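TA notes. Do not distribute before section.
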Amino acid sequence: MATSFALDSSLLSKLDDRKRRNQPRWDADIIHSDDAGDFFSCDYLSLSHHPHLRERFLSTLASEPRLLGSTGSRALTGSTVSHIGLEKYLADELGVEKTMVYVSGYTANITFFGCVPQAGDVILCDEYIHASIHDGIRLNRPKLGGALCVPTQLPSIREGKATLFVVVESVYSMDGDFGPLHGILEIVERLVPRESAHIVVDEAHSIGLYGPGGKGLVRAWGLEKRLHTGMMTFTKTLNFTGGVMTMNATVYEYLSNHSVPWMFTSAPAHVDMIGMKFCFDVLKSAEADRLRETVMDLSRFFLSLFAQSTRDIPKSVLSLLNSETKNLNSRGLISPIFAIFSPDVVALQNHLNKKGNSEEQIKSLVEALREWALAQGSNVIKQDEALRSKL
């Protein structure tokens, strides 16, 4: 394969710069063992290791007449009975007018935000929302007119001629906290005319863990009728592939006729549609309810043990650097989270645990964190003493 030396030199320089600043660099040398305690993957209910799901899924596939490609984009031959049927099924289950399925949650977000907001509209979003939403907004920037100043659009919003999009997540995976949906709804409904407000909630990390049948935090709190658009992904708790947007019929029709990714990307394969429905059905089962209870029990156990084991360590010390993740991996713990994403280990407490982890593995993680924190604290003290000696 030919080499472009100028390009390679430039790319290597950027990679070296990330290393100097301790920013994340994917390490191909780390291979995670299936037997390792997994505290950071998105397989929250450990469905990937469930003993009976494989047989049940294969049995479901055996009865299906079509499994492979959709034969075209949704705008051409890809809107099959499987695709339309899944969208109707999900709409009925979630209590919305329409749903639109995508190959991933990332594609769902960039498609919606890159297409739906119109010239003169304003997007008000949390800086910690998913990168896919930021990317979609950037794609739409020429139509929106670049960086808009909200006050200049207030007259149009007040008169119902422009839309204010308010975008949040229900669960933030990196900090492990909930979005203040009640407060946001109260403010928007009080200050923004009803015809001008459009609230979007990303439930990627909520679906499967919270709510009746694992249908998300929005439905756990009974807020679904007060929101306009939602995004859910099948790649995390549901442990499959694909994403889905909930919306009204007008938005669905607009996306079907104006969304470039929807019109020019091949539709997901039939096996994806079958798998998405299969996994969604699993989440509604009594078995999934038990798995969710186990996750919450393990989370409470971790919180208690972590607080007890680190009560003598300043919270400012508990920051895990990228270079330390190999050490955890060598001890049978999966921890590929980089400090640039979440520098405060304490902030991750509420979203660390998975059903598949045992109490012994949690004890091992806490022990490793404590050992590291004590060493880190010792280094901080030494650096402080060295600095004082020079004064």
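Switch to the second chain here.
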Amino acid sequence: MPPAPPVPPAFPPAPPGGGYPPPAYQAYGGANDGSASYSGVAIASFVLSLTCCLGILAVPLGIVGIVKTGPGKARGRWMAVTGLVLGVIGTIVAALVTLATIGVIAASQRVVTPDNATAGQCIAATTKNDNVTMIDTGCSLDHNGQIFAVLTPTAADVAAGRTSLELCMTRVAGAFPGIQGRVVKGQPRLTIAGEEVEISAASAQRGIKAGQPVACWIEAVDGTLDTDPVAHD
């Protein structure tokens, strides 16, 4: 009888999982990672965006805060984004308010009244419901009038019942020598260098008052004064 075949050697059993250890997992440092701290830049951006005057600083801080926050970084991205958005809006609003304020102040400084009027000023005069508004435009810009005299009524003028227009008419001959006036539709007119102008007058109150100035000006009939006959700076 032939001998039996040899028994193959036994192999040790394979370790569980195919012989490879399970892979290690890294911790996820996301936005909600409790171990990450809040970004101070993001907090500063958010706080500054809520103020009335420092919102402009929130814009660059918000940009830096967005870069420094997010997965694997510091927490507080929502504060950086909110600070950036509110900072931009606040800056735009502040700029508009500033420009409007400057415009109002500049306009108020250009308003001409009998108290600050001077001969030679070029003005844009507007009359509405017997109220006159005069703006000093300067003579280089389009205008419809020019101040030719500023008078101060006396007590005798008031007692005589003179009007502001009557007082201004007493200065026409001196301001525009050799020019004859006429009345058209109840309003005195002159022709200066071929241009039709009306004589107008205004005081700070209805009627005249002793010691209260009266401003006298010519106003172009066609709405644009082409000639400035009164000397000006």
